[in-house]
């Protein structure tokens, strides 16, 4: 995955080819900001964009993955315990459309 950061018209191709493009609106014009995925006004906002929002997105994705594992383990454990108590007779616990 690539990240491209540019502030002028000569960076437009690079920004459009990258997975994530950041354009900085400045003295060289608005071409880079128009072709980018994210546009910022000054270089000093780049630190906040990369290290705060990037870390937050990484943390949220990690929490989502852990939640999905947790949910699936609970779902399967209930089915397994029901199968144990029904002597693995093949009786369904949930409706057919849930499976």
Detail the topology: elements first, then pairings.
Blueprint: E1 3-6, H1 12-17, E2 20-24, H2 31-35, E3 38-40, H3 45-85
Parallel strand pairs: 1-2, 2-3
Overall geometry comes to rod-shaped
Query: How many strand elements?
Result: 3
Instruction: Report how far apart the termini are.
Output: 36 Å
Percent strand = 5-15%
Specify the biggest β-sheet.
Answer: 3 strands, parallel
Number of domains: 2
Helical content (DSSP H or I, runs of 4+): 40-55%
Overview of the structural elements:
There is one protein chain. This protein has 99 residues and is of the alpha/beta class. The protein folds into two domains: 1-43, no CATH class; 50-99. Helices cover 53% and strands 12% of the residues. It has helices at 12-17, 31-35, 45-85; strands at 3-6, 20-24, 38-40. A three-stranded parallel sheet has the order 1-2-3. β2 (20-24), α2 and β3 form a beta-alpha-beta unit. The chain starts with a strand and ends in a 14-residue tail after the last helix. The model has no long low-confidence stretch (mean pLDDT 87).
Outline of the structure:
With about 100 residues, this protein is α/β, with parallel strands linked by helices. It folds into two domains: about 1-45, no CATH class; about 50-99. It has three helices and three strands, in the order βαβαβα.
């Amino acid at each position: 995955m690539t990240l491209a950061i540019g502030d002028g018209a000569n960076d437009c191709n690079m920004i459009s080819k990258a997975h994530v493009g950041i354009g900085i609106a400045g003295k060289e014009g608005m071409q880079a900001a128009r072709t980018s995925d994210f546009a910022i006004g000054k270089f000093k906002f780049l630190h906040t964009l990369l290290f705060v929002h990037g870390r937050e997105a990484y943390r949220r994705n990690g929490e989502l993955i852990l939640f999905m594992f947790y949910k699936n383990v609970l779902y399967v454990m209930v089915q397994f315990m029901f199968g144990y108590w029904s002597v693995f007779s093949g009786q369904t616990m949930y409706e057919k459309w849930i499976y």
